[in-house]
Design goal:
The protein is α+β, with helices and mostly antiparallel strands and about 625 residues long.
């Protein structure tokens, strides 16, 4: 008996009202997950509430081949799906928490990222292990579909996103999700402006907004499914995106401003000759605070040990700009790109190029910051990261993100800076030996006082430093009395360094400083000889900082901070001197006491003249 050929499968038909129902169904689901009420579509006044239970059903007829009668008996069948119960079991509030600063922190801790780029795409293989919200059966589910969409903001297309090779490993303990995400940025000015406005709304203004999702399609073997085109082509969804305060993000990743999320292994800083700036090379680990353990304590000892995220990055080129508010400070160019392997960087090279052109605006900003810092006032301004470009090379880099600007208040950075200074000082003093040992010194006094000294430097940190001759003006109460220059400094990452320093002090005649200097010297002698508490109304002022390039090239001269002038009260400086002296061993050139000084000098009394003032008697 001949076998009957099976009937062809039923065609994949799309109901006439499906394109109208689908957006509403999706928005109801999103409202349930995100929470709250929002308008779903342009031109629609219909609100979709997260408080309303979403509904879905399977409606007959159902076709089972080769049994055509099944379609006949199931035509009136409608099977309601328990969407609400499933969402309740999934503990939706936990999903919402993933779009908070702490949620992002947890997501990075749980996930593994690997970022690479081509000339047109950003590849992001992604894996994450999630705890089970439902008792799942042990099953490996590989989904053969690929899903792609486009993202736009205010009508400006920004990028396309595709998700491939989605797999889910289910078990009673959790859900392991793996996929490969491909992002194709639109390399246009309009895309850059759209991305700027989107990030500004989310992170700067911290307000909710919507992203237009369009050009959606489902693909198998890179071919779009016919029913996908029929159902999705031309549809535009407005996906809600909650605001996220960048300050809260900063707190989450710095333990409320008390730790730097880096563990530095080595650092090279060499002043450049061909341009005003520095060449740097660093090796470090990213170390993020343990999720959920953030503290408001300012004590580094109370901060929890961080974790190294599983983030790998391979970019052929990258650059970013650093500004103080709207005043450009420097551009950071990474000519060899960014290479991270599981959160670890090895010899990451970056050229820090200081701003060129008009700099008065920057000087004014820096002066205001210095004044606030020295007077104990809250720091004004923000440090702004922007101008981000990256790609396989400088010529083939994405500019889609180049207009994005992320500001971080300097008031947020101040505790980190203070914590760093405290940590460095504690490490230096806990070593049990001085950092600097002065071997000898040669002083010559003339119109210019020159000091030639040889010192040994204990390099507790793997620092490699090269800078040219530095000069600055020294004064009292803003009145300059000397120009101080320090010859080029070279420090190698050895345990000890033999350094030769040339210090030149060119004194200047200034009548305005004569009396203050006399009063300062008298107060110092009272402190040294009589043990009196040092008190002075005067302040040491510093201005006119310049740094000549190591080779003396004019192009490498740094005079960007020459316009800054600030003063520090001597009542603040003098109490710190004993602490600083703990780090310096100058026994080779200084006497142990006044008596030993007199003994070394071996003075001989040759004679003395004694006289009285006119009309006075000697008693």
């Amino acid at each position: 008996m001949a076998h009957q050929a099976p009937s062809p499968l039923p065609s994949q038909e799309i109901a006439s009202d499906a394109r109208d129902k689908l957006p509403r169904a999706v928005y109801k689901m999103m409202a349930k997950i995100i929470g709250g009420d929002f308008l779903a579509m342009d031109g629609s006044s219909e609100p979709f509430s997260g408080n309303e239970p979403p509904t879905a059903s399977l409606v007959g007829p159902f076709a089972v081949e080769p049994s055509p009668f099944v379609a006949e008996i199931t035509e009136p069948l409608e099977l309601l799906l328990p969407i609400q119960q499933v969402l309740n079991a999934m503990d939706i509030p936990k999903l919402r928490n993933l779009i908070t600063p702490q949620g992002v922190q947890r997501l990075i801790a749980m996930a593994q990222f690997n970022v690479t780029v081509t000339s047109t795409e950003i590849h992001l293989p992604f894996a994450i292990n999630l705890p089970a919200s439902l008792p799942l059966p042990t099953q490996q589910l590989d989904i053969p579909f690929s899903f792609s969409l486009g993202a736009a903001y205010s009508g400006r297309s920004m990028l396309k996103i595709a998700m491939h090779n989605l797999s889910m490993g289910m078990s009673k303990k959790g859900l392991a999700v793996r996929t490969r995400i491909v992002i194709s940025p639109e390399n246009t000015q309009a895309a850059a402006e759209g991305m700027r406005d989107l990030v500004d709304s989310i992170l700067v203004q911290a307000k909710a907004t919507t992203v237009e999702v369009r050009d959606m399609s489902l693909l198998v073997n890179n071919s779009t499914l016919p029913w996908s085109d029929s159902l999705l082509k031309g549809l535009v969804f407005k996906a809600p995106v909650p605001g996220m305060d960048v300050s809260a993000l900063f707190d989450a990743f710095t333990n409320s401003g008390t730790t730097v999320p880096l563990a530095m292994h080595s650092l090279l800083v060499h002043q450049m000759d061909a341009a005003a700036g520095f060449r740097t090379e660093s090796s470090f680990d990213l170390v993020l605070p343990a999720p959920g353990n953030a503290t408001t304590s300012s004590s580094p000892e109370s901060n929890p040990v961080g974790t190294i995220p599983r983030i790998s990055v391979d970019l052929g080129f990258a650059r970013a700009a650093v500004s103080i508010d709207d005043a450009l400070l420097a551009n950071a160019v990474m000519p060899s790109g960014v290479k991270l392997a599981d959160g670890k960087a090895d010899k990451l090279a970056a050229n820090i190029l200081l701003a060129t052109g008009e700099r008065q605006g920057l000087t004014n900003k820096l002066q205001a910051i210095a004044n606030a810092l020295l007077s104990g006032q809250p720091l004004p301004s923000s440090l702004v990261i922007g101008g981000l470009q990256f790609g396989v090379s400088e010529q083939n880099s994405f500019r889609t993100f180049s207009l994005v600007r992320i500001p971080v208040s300097l008031a947020k950075l101040e505790p980190i800076a203070k914590s760093l200074v405290k940590t460095v000082f504690e490490q230096a003093t806990s070593a049990g030996r001085p950092l600097v040992v002065v071997r000898n010194a040669d002083v010559k006094v003339g119109s210019t006082v020159t000091v030639q000294t040889n010192i040994a430097l204990a390099n507790l940190w793997p620092l490699d430093i090269l800078v040219g001759r530095m000069s600055l003006d020294l004064g009292v109460n803003g009145n300059t009395f000397a120009r101080v220059s320090v010859g080029g400094i070279t420090i190698k990452p050895d345990s000890k360094n033999a350094l030769s320093l040339n210090v030149a002090v060119q004194l200047r005649n200034n009548d305005a400083v004569q009396d203050p200097l006399k009063q300062i010297v008298e107060a110092a002698w009272q402190t040294v000889l009589m043990g009196a508490t040092f008190e002075s109304p005067h302040a040491i002022s510093v201005s006119g900082l310049t740094i000549v390039s190591p080779a003396g090239n004019a192009a490498g001269r740094i005079d960007h901070f020459a316009g800054l002038s600030f003063g520090v009260s001597l009542n603040t400086i003098v109490p710190l001197v004993p602490q600083v002296l703990k780090l310096v061993d100058a026994k080779a050139i200084l006497p142990e006491s006044v008596a030993s000084l007199m003994s070394a000098a071996n003075p001989t009394l040759q004679g003395a003249d004694i006289a009285t003032l006119e009309g006075q008697a000697l008693r």
